[in-house]
Amino acid sequence: MDPAILEAFRQVLLDPMIWAAVLGAAVYGVFVGAVPGLTATMAMALLVPVTYWMPPLPALAAVVTMVACAIFSGDIPTILLRIPGTPASAAYADIGSGLSSRGKGDEALVTALVFSVAGGLFGAVVLIVLGSQLAQVGTLFSPAEHFWLYVLGLTCAVVVSKDAPLKGALAVLLGLLVSTVGLSAVHASARFTLGYPELYQGIGFIPAMIGLFGVSEVLKNLLTLEPGVPGPTSVADVSRVRVLHALPGSLRRLFRRPVSAFRSGSIGALIGMLPGAGADIASWVSLGVSSRSKPEPDTPDDEAALDRLSDATTANSSALAGAWIPALIFGIPGDSVTAIVIGVLMMKDLRPGPEIFEKQPIIVYGLYLIFILANLALLPIGLLAIKAGGLVLRAPRRILMPVILLFCVLGSYAINGSTFDIGVMLASGLAGFALERRGVPLGPVVLGIILGGPLEERLIQVLTSADGSAIAFIDRWPARILALIWLILLFVSLGRGRGPDAIPASAASREDSSDHSDGG
Amino acid sequence: MIRSRSIRPPGRLLPLILASTAVVLAGCSGEERFPDRPIMLICPWSAGGGTDTVSRKVAAMLEQDLGVPVNVVNATGGSGVTGHTRGALAPPDGHSITMITVELNMLHWRGLTNIGPDDFRPVMLLNQDAAALFVPADSPWGSISDVRAAVAEAPRSLKASGTAQGGIWHVSLAGWLDAEGLRADDVLWIPINGAGPSLDALMSGGIDMVCCSLPEASSLMEAGRVRCLGVMAEARIPDFPDVPTFGEQGSDWSMGGWRGLGLPLGVPEDRAELLVSAVDRVIRSEDYLGFMEHTGFNVSPAPPGEFREIMEQFDRQMGDILMGEAFQSVRRTRYGPMIFPIVILALLGASLAVLLLRGSLRRDPGAPRLDRAGLARMGLVVLFVVSYMALAGQVGYLLSASTLLLGMLLALGVRWPVALATSAALVPATYQIFAVGLRVPLPWGWLGW
Fold first, then answer.
1. Start-end of CATH 3.40.190.150 domains in chain B
2. How far is CA B15 from the centre of its chain?
3. Pick among 3.40.50.720, 3.40.190.150, 3.20.20.100, 3.40.50.300: CATH of B39-128+257-331
4. pTM for the predicted model, two decimal places
5. Which of A410, A470, B229, B421 keeps 20 to 30 A from A419, CA to CA?
6. What is the SS3 assignment for B416?
7. How far is it, in rounded angstroms, from Cα A280 to Cα A313?
8. What does CATH list as the number for B129-256?
9. Per-residue pLDDT tens for A354-400?
10. What would the pLDDT profile of A269-297 be if each residue is shown by its tens digit?
11. Sign (positive/negative) of CA torsion A274, A278, A281, A285?
12. In angstroms, what separates the C-alpha of B169 from chain A's closest C-alpha?
């Protein structure tokens, strides 16, 4: 065995500073991930000055653990309150909160945790075993392939809108339209800004997401709040968040479905390593694939929902390690979090690139170990966090809702320190409330806002490079494969989605008055 | 970092609030100190890029020097318009600094904004990076003359990138072509936002060459994936001694970008001086110099006066280049900004029409009806957010958030001791956690805590 591996083991496992860093970063990551508006990117940026004082391995341990924990803990408010803590959780906000409102919040959360850990470990193994080979796949992706990847992600968001794919499409398109507000990245010309300079930087997807999910949820809850009755807690029936009770079931689920866990993990790792595509697209695509392959039609609804939830959480956690593949090998980050990580590495005199494997093998092996360690640490800390989340939700709704609103305001301001973003949050909240009453899903809107800019960039890039010829979209074989996958996905979903959209059975009298006020 | 607060039994809370307010107000009396609260460093480029890396390093070190948190805010978009505009229009109290970049000399010539170098008080020039030309390792071209010959032979068949349309690296490449007697648009410029994604596209074969600064491509160069044909500098760069200059290859073209710190106009002179000397200490420190060397950024600091001259000189040069005949094509994009929105709007209209015809956009049967009481409670949300937006900037987070939270809790029928306890405990606690612990910017205001 390479002596460097033994040395790495020794340095990682015997260093109390690494254990302290893992523990501290796990708690920090869980907290930051659970607050909507505090993104993993931002948390990472805040960690930079701290890691600055640490030796390289503890610094890496803090960074890796923090991100892994933040991506999982984004699921806690997603499932309990239907407010995604991170964009990576938006894909399954409906599934998770649905389970939660049927009294299965504990099962949903523990399943998310177990599969996040499994996904994280899977991603780590992929990074360790296949990292250098897979990095070559990343270099096949030119703008045309990225274009198809984004189209694929958006189509998955439509496919998973269960009853009404057309409403899902409407939601995606609304999101894409919102993303065109502001100065476009390609042309740097102002669009739909109505003369407001604040709109130049566009509608941020974080405040929009907080509004669409958080504020609209608060609005919905306040609408039905019974005056004078102490009432139950919010969306979730958390009278029994029994985490340890739910753990064996989730582990059994993992062992019952090794193939789909493997599939979701691979999807996550592959998407994670592509620059510009991260955990959020990974969870949508995994969910899209998962909803296509439902073997037994007689599976109970909640079981099927838990299965889909587990697929998506596996993929978004696995994507995290994937993002390190191009970062370590070429110094090209897979997402913005890893971009800051590269900065941290460089501060430590570690220049990512192939020579890091030769010059600093201890760091590389140490990093691999840390990935395993971080995901193992997530399990107990995640269980505690779920427990704590359950306790918070015991507060009555009339107290909880204003407090959540305060957090929404804080979170949207936190992104840019701009009051304008709070306005965006409120407007999205009202719009989200109105859309949801019409049965339009909100998750795809968020994905549309996230992907709109990159999608347009790729579209213009491909058109420019081909001097306007549409053939450019399919003149390379990787692009053809992706286009083919997209066509298959489209046909399969059309085949399933035939027949009219679910029309409300009781043609309830329409409320045409003030429930679509999305101004502001 | 997080001060714990014990929750007292309800009823004894009013004195607590009054007491804490008094303490806070007492703390305000010694208002002479600057800086007395976190400083925001606006970075017009996204997290992870070269400018961001330098910004974060400078921020981390300024923080130690000044003793207050220095937070980097990435205000990205519009080729730098967003961040520069925000920096120039920030309140001139010394608590907002901007990492200004060469685009400040270009944006106004391109008609994208009115903000120019005159809208900043220069603090310090940090570095100047020359442009360099990269090709894949397996490319047949060995020198810039090979590229020149290839372009002359087949104009508009080669693709290059490195930044957005009309960005600094685009102008660098187009300027060289122009200086070589070719047309500035003989190489197709694919607008890719940033050097990292451009290098990606280079490796996948999507484009033929990349123009960006040397440190941005250094990992790939060391990995043997890309080759640098030349750097557009007067002399070779010490960190990259093997890379020849354009001058050595018979072209006298040199071009590059710069980064520096600037303050909005109107900052009191004593505060500006204090910041200048702090930045000066930082960039002379061994720590900073070591970092810049590892990362490959060159270090060429210049004090405010000299920085102003450099900016003015660049500005004239950019004006000549960008307003010249040869560059009209650089300023234009072939595929207009409205193509994408129009496609989306058409698809949106179509799906909306189908949904309306089918009548499937009716109210969800499960959704509760809007009654008057419910609407009133929902109105509280709007009231809360709108009043917070109106008040917080002036009054500050602590006062406005606690008042509004209290009001909303009471309006929802929460008993007043509980409501008072909740807002009195929660608002200061969130303040401690977010503003003090996590360095999240929160509105200041009267208390100035």
1. 39-128+257-331
2. 44
3. 3.40.190.150
4. 0.81
5. B421
6. helix
7. 10
8. 3.40.190.10
9. 778 878 888 889 999 999 999 999 999 999 999 888 887 778 888 88
10. 988 888 777 788 899 999 988 876 655 55
11. positive
12. 14
